[in-house]
Amino acid sequence: MTDLNTPQPADSSAPHDGGPTLVVELKMLDAGIEPPSYAHPGDAGADLRTRIDLVIAPGERVLVPTGVSMALPFGFVALIHPRSGLATKHGLTIVNAPGTVDAGYRGEIAVTLLNTDSAHSIVLSRGDRIAQLVIQRVEHAHFVAVDALEDSVRGAGGFGSTGGFTSEHAPR
User: What are the residue boundaries of the structural domains of the chain, listed by start?
Assistant: First the structure.
């Protein structure tokens, strides 16, 4: 008998029908708000909604409550990502994207939204979808201090060291 409240290891030989693979207990703090849900089969992110009406002025950031708390199984994390349509069409993003909800946290999930538009306010109504919740497995590392690290092809190169611009006006 399988206990659905205990995360089960993925069986790579079994076909996946697109149904849930993990049970996550939710406590809805506001009965009028829909729980997180996936818009389409196969979506990675479940939509989170605002439980308040608000206006976010140009350049303003606001901590927005979602009316959801949850109990993630240990070994998992929930990452809060911006919604691509809101980012593209309105300049709405998440300041600390992705936000991190640890397995031990039991408080209300809140999202720090930022209006990056320089001229227009963003109006959000109670129940509007504001972010996506992506749940992933996490590993806990055993950190070991060493005197030197093994070489790699990349080495210490970072922050654009591999290029990426093809324009003649690219920064140098």
Answer: 36-137
The answer to whether the Cα torsion of 71, 110, 80, 96 is positive or negative is negative
Give per-residue burial for 100-128: e unless 16+ CB within 10 Å, then b.
ebeeeeeeebbbbbbbebeeeebebeebb
Report which DSSP code applies to 72: P
Q: DSSP class of residue 164?
A: -
CATH assignment, 36-137: 2.70.40.10
Chunked into runs of 10 residues, the chain (172 residues) has average pLDDT values of 42 52 95 95 96 98 98 97 92 94 97 97 97 96 95 82 70 58
Measuring CA to CA, which residue among 90, 100, 102 is closest to residue 128? Answer: 90
